[in-house]
Here is the input.
Amino acid sequence: MQTLILDGFLVAAPSILSAQGSGRKRATFRVLETTRFRRADGSSGERTTGFNCICFNEATTENYIAPFARKGTRVVIQGHVENDSWTGKDGVEHFDLRLIVGDVRLKNRKDSEQTAVSDDAASVQEPAGGHEAPDDIPF
Here is the structure.
């Protein structure tokens, strides 16, 4: 099994779905991760990669992802990669990779407009010296 640790930002608010029959909740979301590098000629560049993620853990979905995750939230995810395939309306078979979430850490920034939350457990803060989300996120 391939384990992946991903540090990135949510593209949009997660979609919380209930399974037919059992009613168990799961969360699906997309995370963008940007890698910065320097080319051989000395110029800088960056590459952004998108990951489709799915969390089947109902407790994590209801207690952390649904109430606290929103567009632009920085997340650190640990999980494993699976193949996903489907047949489109045109009959063409499509293939994709998705990340099955095993563990997720939300790294919410304090917004100046946001009211303070009285419960410290509701807001996960980054340790000193961590990375701040850039103000010019492209989504």
Notes: The chain has one domain: 3-122. Residues 111-131 have pLDDT under 50 and may be disordered.
